[in-house]
Amino acid sequence: MSKSCKGLAMELVKCLSESDCVKVEKRSFRECAGEKSPSISSECVGLRETYFNCKRGQVDMRARIRGNKGY
């Protein structure tokens, strides 16, 4: 279960690495993922929300019993 969000994490890193926040503004992935910036595409914002929900599901006891919805 600890690796069920790994695919989403890789997609998020790939999307953020192609965004202007990382390329033009030379900011770290963590800074770009943590805030709502207009230099991040809506696809990256959607991936970020899905990744955060996946990580939240790992600590939710109901989701732990049923299993996390994998990528």
TrEMBL record:
Belongs to the PET191 family. Keywords: Disulfide bond. GO terms for biological process: mitochondrial respiratory chain complex IV assembly. Signal peptide: none annotated. InterPro entries: Cyt_c_oxidase_assmbl_Pet191. This is Cytochrome c oxidase assembly factor 5. GO terms for cellular component: mitochondrion.
